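OP here, attaching both records as promised.
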Amino acid sequence: MGSIHLSRVSLIESLTEVIGYKSGLVVAEGELVELLRASGYFEKILASDGSGGGRIRSEEYENAVVLLLYKLGRTSSPNNIFFLAEMYHKYKGDPAMLDLYMEIGKLYNSSIKIAMREAMARPSQGRSIDPTAFMTEATRRYGRLGLDMAIEMITGVSRDLNRSAWGPHRSIDWKDEIELADLFKSENLATSHGTFLDQRFIDYLDRNFEQISNIHWRKFEGLTGEFFAREGYKIDMGPGRNDDGIDLRVYPITEIENGPPLIIVQCKRVKAKIDKTLIKSVYADVLHEKASSGLIVTTSYLSPGAEHMRTARGYNVEAADRETLRQWISGMRTAD
């Protein structure tokens, strides 16, 4: 592997550009340095007095890009290991599966060369590679097991291309770039990759769930709305301020005109546990709105007293607590 010489400024600009293109997220200098700090990558160069720069091995740069994409939620592993090598280690303990892996690998190599020639011959129609012939032949020769391994191989190679520091491939063709800082500082819910909260923020929170308590309160409401929208409900998102304590109204997709909401939602991005007072308040709103139920979405939990009162009095108010939020985000993340 070769090496390159970069100043502190050049290194930060280069990594920011690559990460921005691959992830669709604009990461500020301080955020980038913080993401890399624990890894030990480029420690001397990235130090505040590292204006002199230094020599970086190309594989070290590649590893840093993969690590950053992992920390931003854009790839499933921080380890920069070629997928075909991972497959080999996965199957090497089973002679039959290892033989199949070797045969599928040979078939992949021959098929991909043909597919690349075909793609180069039709530039006006785009140069994407069609793996259909490879999968068809793998199925013909080795049945369903061959097809499954062929799909695994295609998916893995695609993963490697999408997170490569050098190539133009990326898993999603982002329509724009957004700043990671907006998740924490902006109440704007406009998004080109979601309904109320951008997919890139969801992927980031899936990898960095501990940041859920620090996101902007309006983004927290957007996260809740995004979950219910993806579940197939119609959402009436409140104005964010002066909403009389109701942040969202959730309706069935076949909403009855002028009918009551199915669920009224209050979002609480707090560290303290939810007390009895909020339970009573939401229940009063349920009665006033003639809703079927109320929901408190919180980054914390119900206090024991609030939970006891809710169940003892039969209030139709539920809570989506911190663990529930983790499940919501995990379910909405981009598939690996």
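Record two, same layout:
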Amino acid sequence: MSRLILAPMEGLADDVLRDVLTSTLAYDWCVTEFVRVTGTVMPHSLYLRMSPELKQGSKTAAGTPTRVQLLGSDPDMMARNAAHLARLKPAGIDLNFGCPAPLVNRHRGGAALLGEPALLHAIVRAVRAVVPAEIPVTAKMRLGIDDTSRALDCALALEAGGAESLVVHARTKADGYKPPARWEWLARIREEVGLPLIANGEVWTLQDYFDIRAVSGCDDVMLGRGAVADPMLASRIRLRLAGTTPQDAMQDWETLRGLIARFWLLANRKLAPQHTPGRLKQWLGLMRRAYPQAEALYADLRPLRHADAMSPVLRSHGIVVSEDRAAA
């Protein structure tokens, strides 16, 4: 059976958005934003802040398992942090070798390590050695730094190190998020590695989902920005796989109004009122790609800077929040 995974998205898919997106019950698991590992063992409080799901069996409110992602370049410190994290019993520990952010890469993190397959192997091997067998250790990579010349070496190194599955974002670091993604490379990697390979990159629509599977030969797909732009995409995929015709976009918007209301409620519980408007507008900015209703809502909310000013506008669009900020 094909698995769907919600991607880790730094600065976007925090615990609030993970809660909302996984409430559709369409994902097999999700992955947190990365925890940056440097020269110390991070306290449990940091992991609990990054992944409040750890307090409830490492699952979102809807019951979706949540894996915690680590990013770093020192095998020993990655292992020590993974062992400490494992005491909180996460649903899995994922290792980030794909982040293309310049600040992260300048400090030898994420995709900057893709020129050192031996280091990738050492990190995975060190982490796997200290994490209990019942906790999956997985990895996420891109195709390389400036080119794809070492993509196979990196994938094989991660497999040899003990990764149980591998997500490959079908772009290089230099590609950033520019289309098109290089899906054909996923097929090449899949031919060489024996561990489960999860396809990722440029899946925005139902057709994209079936196309990436056809080109890559992968059964499993990780959804990233496409899942944020269209929160019903994963559900639509599930319906099509089950042989059912997905509902139309207007019916989807009725569901989405409820998801936006939940997002607003949870965001206001977590953040100060001057910060929640930016978070909602960030999400709606991506949703405009798939829904004209989101475009209209975004236009009305765009000039507003405070939560108190946003709520009446949300209500005017039929988005009713069950609990106001004062009650929260």
